[in-house]
Amino acid sequence: MFHVSCFMTIDSQLITKIRATTGAGMLDVKKALEEAGGDAEKAVTILRQKGVIKAASKSSRQTTEGLVASYIHGEGRVGVLVEVNCETDFVARTEAFKELTRNIAMQVAAANPMYLRAEDMPETEIAREKELYRELLLKEGKPENMIEKIAESKLQKYFSEVCLLNQPFIKDDKKTVEQVVKEAIAVMGENIQVKRFCRFAL
Question: Which of 192, 186, 1, 36 is nearest to 103 (CA)?
């Protein structure tokens, strides 16, 4: 059994080992370890309970079916289209899948994301944001050895503001939109991918 004190920084090697055995994403593993106080076995249990492991096992499956959902808000002042894909037409027709797509459309309307995921952001924009944080932290007199860590933390917060999948879910801000999708994968038993979205506003 691996164990890391909850007062220590989570060991990157431990994260790598859990990712290798579960197929879960790095951020999911890190959050689970933090929640478990560094206990790897508890972290795996948390990942399983949240449906992350089940979702990871289906992530390579093709998603050729799905829905385009629309949402109009503010007496027609904001409109959203979002495409969410799944594996079969059967799942696409279920009320649970329709509700998921509508919730994601509502999320786009309310939170106005600029990108689908952090990986979609141009490298130049990420570098610019990080450099801006570094400059501000230097002006604040933060120690050199802490600046990189704080800047990275601020960058993650920026992702949670501008990237749809990283945003806190409007109906439960303890979860991200990505976690909501992964939970849906676990329940519906199919790979589900948010493909694209478009938001119009007057």
Answer: 192
- 130-167 pLDDT, tens digit per residue, is 889 888 888 888 887 788 888 888 888 999 999 999 99
DSSP code of residue 39: B
Nearest in space to 58 (alpha carbons), one of 82, 83, 37, 88: 88
* pTM of the full structure: 0.69
CB burial of 81-103 (b: ≥16 within 10 Å; e: otherwise) equals ebbbbbbeeebbeeeebeebbbb
The answer to whether 92 and 100 have CB atoms below 8 angstroms apart is no
The conformational region for residue 172 under phi > 0 = left, psi -120 to 50 = alpha, else beta, is beta
Q: Report which secondary-structure segment, H or E, holds 186.
A: helix 177-188
How does DSSP assign 110-145, residue by residue?
HH--SBSSGGGS-HHHHHHHHHHHHHHHHHTT--HH
| Strand pairing report for 193-201 and 65-73 | unpaired
Q: Which of 70-74, 109-113, 142-146, 177-181 is the least confident region?
A: 142-146
- Closest to 53 measured CA to CA, from 27, 25, 30, 31: 25
In this predicted structure, the answer to whether residue 4 has a pLDDT above a threshold of 70 is: no
The pLDDT value given to residue 187: 87
- Residues 58 and 85: their CA atoms lie apart, in Å, by 13
Q: What are phi and psi of 116, to 5 degrees?
A: -75, -50
